[in-house]
Write a structure and sequence with these properties.
Blueprint lengths: L36 E5 L3 H12 L3 E5 L13 E3 L6 H10 L2 E4 L6 H8 L3 E2 L3 H7 L2 H10 L7 E4 L2 H5 L8 E5 L9 E4 L2 H10 L5 E5 L3 E11 L5 E3 L3 E6 L2 E7 L6 H17 L4 E10 L4 H6 L2 E7 L9 H4 L4 H10 L12 E7 L11 H5 L4 E5 L10 E8 L3 H15 L5
Parallel strand pairs: 1-2, 1-4, 2-3, 4-5
Antiparallel strand pairs: 6-9, 7-8, 7-9, 10-11, 10-12, 10-14, 12-13, 13-16, 14-15, 16-18, 17-18
The structure holds adenosine-5'-triphosphate (ATP) and magnesium ion.
């Protein structure tokens, strides 16, 4: 597209708009004489994998991220290095791109709103704003008829004082800007709750009842502007210290009835937002015989991410359509088809913790195991808890995949699972 082209109009279509999506992105692809550029707000690893998927399909890419060394910025055709709210940076992104997505939920909603004035933006500012705020997110889940953990919003000392006793023990979570377990404090008594809220500088928070978890799972859905909604298989996730450690996806990883309920809930959450894009919804599965499970029905929604998710990375190696291709398709107005998983898969997150002081972990030995797929995000510095990459193991059978994943974890110094 010529950099001097006048701004095109069209963002998310109004509800019930004629199909196909009439925005400037609608089904457009690069051709011999026209570059079509897709943009992404944020240059982390999710942006990098989006860029890879978009480029594979012939698109040009633009990333907006202030960090000159950002993982996505380094592999994109264009890298705009400004703050996320910089009007000139946003104008430059809009000028280059036919459509723009986001790779992290804390992108300022107002920046998305500015971009949406002239460009297709998916997901839209509204869905992202709701995902940024735990309180609004929970109300949305409830409005879709999906069960949430019992909770109370704490924004004032009065709300703190009247917190129901039965929410303790609980987890106090900041309403916004939390990730990987950051901004969360476990509390048992009212006194602990009060000092935890002080410790969080009395920012708006949500207190959630601590639930007895049997396991955690997540569902990734992709919804197009025409309302078509497809999903990846349900992922079973193991977290350690609030960070995703292992994702297992194969037939039998979860009871079929649960899978059905989780997929239906994720789809209703997406359609309730008129969502366009990739959405991940995280769930808790409660200990079957616990009073909480009796009271809440066993499956509880935790939170959503308005973008591809760490728990969906296995789809790049184990499914015929990955979560990043789904993101490209929803953004570019291309058809959505139901992805099919062709191999059982286990994904291990590679955190900075396993990096030696110099060099890298022993990838030579790991890659000698059949069915191992290494993804590194190009981050220069490793630090504790930092996501440096992931390893997906695929194979012909679940037993094979498990055996290889356990062996790989051992070689890498990742705790057994
Ligand atoms: P993410 O990186 O997924 O955005 P986050 O910082 O937003 O993480 P949550 O998903 O809210 O955090 O919580 C992190 C983990 O803490 C959960 O995956 C779960 O293991 C545990 N946890 C959170 N809330 C509860 C709860 N109410 N009861 C029991 N465990 C919980
Ligand atoms: Mg989470």
């Amino acid at each position: 597209m010529s950099p001097h082209a006048p701004p095109l109009h069209g963002s998310l279509p109004p509800q019930g708009a004629d199909l196909p999506w009439g925005g400037p992105a609608a089904g457009r692809m690069s051709s011999a004489n026209a570059e079509v550029t897709l943009g992404v707000m944020g240059g982390g690893q999710l942006g990098r994998m989006f860029v890879h998927a978009a480029q594979r399909m012939g698109y040009f890419t633009a990333v907006l991220d202030p960090d000159p060394l950002s993982p996505a910025g380094r592999v994109s055709h264009h890298h705009i290095q400004t703050a996320y709210t910089d009007p000139q940076g946003l104008a430059q992104l809009a000028q280059r791109c036919v459509a723009i997505t986001t790779e992290f939920e804390n992108v300022p909603a107002q920046a998305l709103a500015q971009l949406a004035q002239t460009r297709t933006v998916a997901p839209g500012a509204n869905g992202v704003a709701i995902a940024q705020d735990r309180a609004r997110e929970k109300s949305h889940f409830e409005s879709c008829g999906v069960t949430v953990a019992p909770y109370a919003v704490i924004e004032t000392p009065v709300q703190l004082a009247v917190v129901p006793e039965d929410l303790l023990p609980g987890i106090l979570k900041t309403a916004s800007m939390g990730y990987d377990g950051k901004g969360q404090v476990r509390v048992t008594t009212r006194a602990e709750l009060a000092s935890a809220w002080d410790g969080l500088k009395q920012v708006p928070c949500v207190l959630e009842k601590m639930l007895p978890l049997q396991l955690e799972c997540s569902v990734i859905v992709a919804r197009g502007a025409d309302g078509t909604c497809v999903n990846l298989p349900v992922q079973r996730n193991l977290h350690r210290d609030g960070i995703l450690a292992v994702t297992e996806v194969y037939e039998g990883n979860l009871p079929p009835a649960l899978v059905e309920r989780a997929v239906a809930a994720a789809k209703s959450i997406a359609s309730g937002l008129q969502y366009v894009g990739v959405l991940c919804v995280e769930f808790f599965v409660l200990e079957p015989d616990s009073p909480a499970a009796q009271a809440l029905g066993g499956l509880v929604v935790n939170e959503m991410a308005p973008r591809p998710h760490n728990s969906g990375h296995y789809s790049m190696d184990a499914c015929d359509v990955s979560q990043f291709e789904l993101q490209v398709r929803t953004l570019a107005g291309l058809p959505l088809t139901q992805p099919r998983q062709h191999s059982p898969a286990i994904m291990l997150n590679l955190l900075g913790d396993i990096w030696p002081d110099a060099g890298t972990p022993d990838f030579q030995s790991v890659l000698a195991l059949p069915g191992t797929h290494l993804h590194l995000y190009g981050k220069a510095r490793a630090s504790k808890g930092r996501k440096m990459g992931h390893l997906t193991v695929t194979g012909a059978t679940v037993e094979q995949v498990r055996a290889t994943a356990v062996q790989a974890a051992g070689l890498l110094g990742i705790a057994a699972f």
